[in-house]
Amino acid sequence: MFARTLPRCLRSPVARRMLSTNIDKSEAAPSFKTIFLVGIVGTAIFVKAVESLEQNKPKTTFTPSEFDTVMSGLRRRVAIFGQEDLDLHCIRSGTPLKKLKLSKEAKIIRPSEVAEFYRNKSDDKYYALLNEIYEKEGESYMKHLPKGLNVEIIGRYMRDNCKKGDTVYLLDFPENIKDAIKFENEVSVIDKVIVPKSSSDDEVSQYFKTVNKVDTV
Questions:
Q1: Is the CB of residue 90 less than 8 Å from the CB of residue 173?
Q2: Strands (E), 92-151
Q3: CA-based Rg of the chain, rounded to a whole angstrom?
Q4: Residues 123 and 199 in one domain
Q5: How confident is the model at residue 121 (pLDDT cuts 50, 70, 90)?
Q6: Omega of the bond prior to 96 within 30 degrees of 0, cis?
Q7: Residues 196, 162 share a domain
Q8: Residues 197, 99: one domain?
Q9: pLDDT tens digits for 174-184?
Q10: What does pTM read for this prediction?
């Protein structure tokens, strides 16, 4: 019946053979070359997708140079604690603690102990960085931390261990004016800075004297 509906020119044996050949070719399986090319394109798309996912993963560890890059790109943030949240006293290095009457209920924080806490916390994002510096510099590694890292880890520690209304003594801090400013901008306002007489005229002490926050011991 199908043959009867064809035009006369397509009813001849030759035309039928040609038509049959074309149909067979259109239904034939794709060639090896086609499969190979499709495979290459598919692999390239997959690789690009994986690279995109890797680039979008949150950063969980830092090298010293990466930390410097991150810190230099950060905008000023809101401080962790409000101005009235803590009664915060910074006691600078060299201050004779025996002359101070520290409240028994107060929380005492040493930056060196904070650094050691995170250096031994294997799932912390600064674990690798702190240990890399420690392996290179030894026990004096605290003096070689990237700019801003000391304040960063102190702030994180205080956020997790201090609460509104606490009295806090931060020992051996700040060591320089940049850390002092960064700390007050990002962590908490400092209520009082206690300094030894030997440091009463240095840059940090002079900075806090302008706002009447220095006690000399």
A1: yes
A2: 107-109
A3: 35
A4: yes
A5: very high
A6: no
A7: yes
A8: yes
A9: 999 999 999 99
A10: 0.66
